[in-house]
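User: I'll paste a sequence; please echo it back and then give the predicted structure.

Assistant: Echoing your sequence first, then the prediction.
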Amino acid sequence: MKRRIHIDRKMPDKAKISGYQNFDSLLHKHQSITKKPKYNGIKVLTGIILIAVVSFLVFDSIDAEENAIAPPFNHVDLAGELHFIDPNDASEVRLLSGTVISIEPSSIVFEDGSICNENVCIRVKEYLNPLHFFLSGIPMTYDSAGVEYTFESAGMIEMEAWSASKKVFLAEGKLAHVEMKATDSRSFNVYAFDSADNKWEFQSIDEVKVNDKEPMPSLIITEDDEVIGMYSEGFDTIACLEPEESIEVIQETAVVNWKLNAIEKREKLIAIEKERRGLQQKMLKEFKNKTPQPTLQRMQVRSDSMAAAYLVLKGDEREITRSFVASRFGIWNCDNPILGSYPDHLTVVFDHDGHEITPTSHLFLVDLNRNAIFKYYPGQNTISLDLNNDNVAWFVTKDGKLAIASLDSAAQAYNSSHPIEVEVLAKQAGIERLETLFD
């Protein structure tokens, strides 16, 4: 590149200097270069909203993933049992399962810590088998030092309470004593679910007792097909709707005994449960209307009588019980983490009506010899199990149905050319099918 270098150039005269002093032209050029672009207000606002919506959806999906309690179905919930108490008195909440929750007087407070003196409704849900765990969406895993273990449960319970005006809580330092029926005498750890951090917190070890058999109520007394009381063999008293009535008067009006009247035991149990739930709904209506406590108490006695009669009919004498104390309402679980692994590993391929069907949601596996449910994520096709035991696996299909498969020793021969046959059922039919496995 050739460059021309001017040496000893002459100073320009005043006329030339003045010709270059057009600062207005210079300012115009500067403004044209640095001029701010014009914005369309509507487009800008639309863009901001779009970014906000996308951000909300992204973070909402993250929150949904982090929310540990995730039921598989909408509008499918285990019905809770309702109990109505005067919080100024000691109370016992008795459930159809035989579970008893004892609450000390003056133990219930409002959120600000003030004592609740109003009638209180306590709702309790029990999750007692793998189907319950599945439907609840409550996680059944426990993290210890970065290792995730699956729980084997001896029973899980959820408690919440409210007055006619607002939600209420167990006061700090107060305890609810929980006694549950047990099928074995093993001790289990007690965990409380921390809903803020979505994790289980170890609390204590439950206490297991083997109880002597006690005489249980054996006669349900009704009048015009309506339960009014219950006579107990071995006891001198009777629980009845009208305490002032004598046993003789009630016995004269006793015209129905469900033990003799029903054809099938299951039908009897369903009949008692249905009537009791109907009664609890009536009690809930009275509770919301702020009905005086004596009326609610009379209805509660009748509800408790039904619960006791249900246990008699079921043949549940609660010979073994496990108990623990809860320091707050919420979800509590008697569990032991399952240590070690199962001996068999199986890569599963499912088939329905000659077509391969791949789980697009979690695959759930249950060993029917253990009260536990294992969860596998989509894409995890290799599962661990004991093929000497009876196992059942299921998953929710894209269209909201349940695909159910039985896995046993024959499953060892299954592979991609000989897949596992699944039964695909509508949601409710699938739930009922699984119920038969865990009754």
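Residues 219-314 form one domain. The CA atoms of residues 343 and 386 lie 6 Å apart.
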